[in-house]
Amino acid sequence: MKQQTTGIHHITAFSRNAQENVDFYAGLLGLRLVKKTINFDAPEVYHLYFGNEVGSPGTAMTFFPWSTSRKGRVGGGQVGYTTFLIPVGTLDFWADRLAKFNVPYTRVERFGETYLQFADQDGLQLELVEREGGQPSKWSFGGIPAENAIKGFGGAILYSVHPAKTMEVLQTVMGLEKIGEEGGLVRFRATGDLGNIIDVNAEPMPRGAGGAGTVHHIAWRAKDDQDHRKWREHVQANGLQPTDIVDRQYFNAVYFREYGEILFEIATDPPGFEKDEPFETLGEKLMLPEWYEPYRQQIEQGLMPIEVRVLKGDE
């Protein structure tokens, strides 16, 4: 049976200042900080998860804020733009909001849609697009009512050093469908209604360099653990080199680098972020996996205190 992902599970990027990161994604963009934990591979660094009211698969933008991180360079082997999905009729609201907080933006047309393109405080390239698909967010914060809130991911633009090979992986391995070409981009669609539209730059891109303002990896959705095991076998059968299955507490993960050098992950939809915190207090406490609990005091002392706060101008 053909394996087909429904779309993006999450996207993970690098940033520098943890509080500035929270101010931008929770304060300005109005996403909910649903989980405050650490990079399990580098416990001196936060891992922050932002999304809809529960950080549902297809909504979670995550960050490793590292104060000493070098400035990255966006390029081949990376996600070039992360696309957020907003409700139809709210583009002008968002244009006004970006202007209000002095975030420069550009309106661009692509495949019959209008996008607002801008960057975060570290230079990470983002865009907003209106579409009907995807469940509305129930989260309201600061100056953003729930009816205008970001629903989750619209998709992404991928920058590849071997775009033909990346596009082949999207079709033959991930199960996306090619649906169009325009302006040097090739468009693919997954089966879901969130995080399902992927554009690939058709020309090879010079290699990027990881660091603040760049994406570390893009993760695709698997239904459950059984489906996840099938995905690992499927990736391996197609000549790629998946890692073993890794427990990330809120999902299980498998990683592999596709032939265009972009790091892909396949992540399970369950168990989700309410596994260890109730809905009402998601993201408020530093959550640690059990193997790090004995070192909580030491870990907390090494992390910058952060808070979700309403920005000046929204007060």
TrEMBL record:
Domain annotation VOC: ranges: 7-131, 152-269
Oxidoreductase recorded as keyword: yes
Record's signal peptide: none
Listed GO MF terms: dioxygenase activity
Keywords: Dioxygenase, Oxidoreductase
Superkingdom field: Bacteria
PANTHER family: RING-CLEAVING DIOXYGENASE MHQE-RELATED (PTHR36110)
Protein name: Ring-cleaving dioxygenase
